[in-house]
Fold this protein.
Amino acid sequence: MGFLKSKLFRQLLVVGIIVLTFGIFIWYGASHPKIISTVLGLNPIIIVFLAIAYSLTILANGIILHFSLSYVRRKTSILDNILLTGYSSIVNFFGPLQSGPGFRAVYLKKKYGIEIKKFLLATFVFYLFFGVINLIIVIIAGLVQKPEWRPAIIITALALALLSPLLLRLALKKERIRAFIGSMRLKDKNFWLIGAGAVGLTLSSGLAYFIELNEISGHIGLGQVLVYTATANLSLFVSLTPGAIGFREAFLIFSQQLHAIPTTTIFAASVIDRAFYVAFLLVMFIVLLVINGRKKFLPSLTRSNQQRQ
């Protein structure tokens, strides 16, 4: 039992899931060679559109971080926030587990002196909005697409509504939880701007999925893509692997009755998405290094010129 809770077991589990997922990708690609030819033959215009879509997700995350820090009364440069988002996206994908938020917390504490507790509060507000938005999309899809599910969904929703005050009261008995929830300020405009940013992030990631899915199938509707996007986003909350590898695909296959996108299209779109996203992160890393180098180089160059004068 102790081994199952150990860090080594979690690391082995993550590696096992990643290897299994890539094994499935390789097997599926070998069984469906058309997928590989589709990925290798991507239209340059599609590549440009995908680059724009993923750049919008980085921008949305940067804006969310900006409003999150404003919410905890910390003013930082929006350019710094976007650059930090870029770096943390790279760390989150290539690093162990979901390490992006931890990287941001350490960086912000070191550079701006932002307390980790305050950053966690702002991050919690974002995750709350992001989770609720995507969950509502999935619930609406269930109500519309599956009439036979409506009684179960309605009963579950009513039960949660009735139990929520009781659960909240029990939670508030814990001093730390009471202090944490008590520090949330619903009247602060930044609180709601974080929510608006979460909507923007959902739509920008949906744009990327829309491009990928329609490159494969050519007749995927906006409603299907929205449910597909919400399901993919919810998989992030339970994922242990970089980029939710394996978990996202599992969620998308289990929710097929809601978005009605075939398994072949899901796998083909996932192959395109993974391949493109890795390339996008590598290019972004080079761009960030150049920008960071210029930020350090230009001030020193200015000081050098002033000293000569």
Summary: The chain is about 80% helix and 0% strand. The chain has one domain: 44-295. Residues 44-295 form one domain. Residues 84 and 184 are 24 Å apart (CA to CA).
